[in-house]
Amino acid sequence: MKLLLVEDEPLLLEEMESYLTEQGYRCEKATNFEEGEDKITLHEYDAIVLDITLPGGNGLKLLELLKKQHKEAGVLIVSAKDSLTDKLTGLELGADDYITKPFHLEELNARVNALLRRKSFSGHNRILIDDLVVDTAAQEVRWKNDIIGLTKKEYELLLYFIVNKNRVVSKQSIAEHLWGDHYDMADNYDTVYVHTMNLRKKITAFTGTDYIKTVYGMGYKFMLS
Amino acid sequence: MKLLHRTTRDFLSATIIILLVTGIGMYLLLQKEVTDEMNEQLAFQAALVGEQVATGQSTGYPFAQVTKTMDLVETPPIYGDTLLYDLVQHKKEDYHYLDLVKRIGSDNYHIKVMTTYIGWGSYYKTIFYLLLAAILLLAASGVLINYFSNRKIWRPFFLNLENLKKYTVSSPAPLQLQSSPITEFKELQAALRDLTDRSHREYMALREFTENASHEMQTPLGIIQSKLDRLSQLDVSEEMARHIVEAKSGVERLNKMNKSLLLLAKLDNQAFEGKQSIALQEVIEQHLLMMEDLFAAKHITINTRLTKATILSDPYLCDVLVSNLFSNALRYSGQDGMLNITLWPHQLILANTGEPLDFPSEFLFDRFRKSSKNIQSTGLGLAIVQQICLLNDWEISYRYEDGQHVFRLGF
After folding, report:
1. Which residue of B has its CA nearest to A178?
2. Could you tell me which residue, B67 or A106, shows the higher pLDDT?
3. Nearest CB neighbour to A81, from listed B215, B242, B320
4. Same domain (yes/no): A73, A143
5. A184: phi then psi, degrees, rounded to nearest 5
6. For the whole model, what pTM was predicted?
7. What is the domain range of residue B241?
8. % of chain A exceeding 90 in pLDDT
9. Which chain A residues are within 8 Å of B226, Cβ to Cβ?
10. Is the peptide bond before B156 cis (omega within 30 degrees of 0)?
11. DSSP structure class, residue A70
12. Integer Cα distance of B181 and B178 in angstroms
């Protein structure tokens, strides 16, 4: 999978690139409007992460350009403005999703992942971990042939862990993913803990493997054996 | 005290004082004039009586007494008032007399002449009634003139006052002012317009600053957050882990605050004009579904009575409003609490159990106002709720009763 990251802040770009590369994507970078324009015109990408406040022009213009050229790439808009107008304009222009700065890289990764799953028509809606099958179309999880009964929140949590496998995911990032950023975090960490423990018990009971590790003080990590 | 009452009162008191002074003056002057006139007349009579006595005729004057006296000296005339019984009218009448001793020929005569006059009482009454009538007429005309000029001249003033009461510095429309031909009002209007324009400009500059500052902070915050996330991936000691987690929670608070500030800054500009009709009960149900495990974790019982309610609002803002009210209930309900949600077609009532506020409730919707027990919160959630209500012309009120925080939202 090939990604284009259009972002003018070098430190953020570097972080995005290194994490998404770790997750197995091939990443290309553009730090301003012209560079973005060139790369979009010359190459094909599966997904583009597009910051809309760029030196040299508005990222939404790049989106228009992309649609004019009938490119297939999925687009995730990144904005420092939590502005609904930008969001709506972006989605109207054919963007697939919208994320507001600052974000957790796990969240970005999960969004890119979901975007690519939606974009692809060939059975990409099943994720395999050993004999554990996550069917994102049916939103269910099976071990061999048994369905593991998960609550909606547990399912979302498991998907988040799997997409961000081998990375320490903080409780904060989990809480934001599960409940959006409207809710009071301080109270939610206990809830994150409860959900994670329940999920862990269920998965371990079926698979005999404890995939979810607690990283002291930091959060949790979904480890592949 | 109203201006009209005040001017009328002053005008009336001035009128009464002037008329009283005039009345008393008139009375005294009249009295003097009349007395002088009568004295002249009496002196003339006395002189005539003297003549008649000298020529040996009997006096033909009804009120003249002439008697020989043993007094050796002439006395100057003495004037005085006396009462005499009137046989016809059967009452006493006022008389004015002149008394003197005069030498006629070789004898001294005592001459007393009298004349009747209208009693001062009648003068006094007449003058009093005249003055009273004048006072009443002046007062009535003053009130009428004031009333009509009040309606006409002051009309623009009152209209402008109403507009000024309704004016908020955050509204994009300039203050509407009625023109008036009166110079003072013109000056007042110019000053008001100037003041509101300046306030509005300064307000806009401030808002833009807030928005830009918050906006500019988002990227550095993003960098800090991703770098802290990166640090978390490394093998760190327990002590370092603790520091990283604490730094993260600081960044997170900044994040939330920043987002709230950005929203607040944008709330009163034209960013949210896309009003749609929204089924509020559905929004509420969605949020409850999303938050149920958060409430369950604190063992908070939720009772709902939702009837269908359709409101007109920007969908995003409606979402923020409901979510902020619920987060607030979640935060302050405490363990094993209760939250009652009642929705009527034009009213939403949220009542949650909890400790009373530790600050006066009128500050509840202020920015950065939070309970001292909850330093984690930004203190902006309810300020945002209030702003959204203002924007949509809804009413929000708060009461604490029977150990419950009650928020009432009318739309």
Report:
1. B290
2. A106
3. B215
4. no
5. -70, 115
6. 0.67
7. 183-266
8. 39
9. 11-12, 15-16, 102, 104-105
10. no
11. T
12. 10
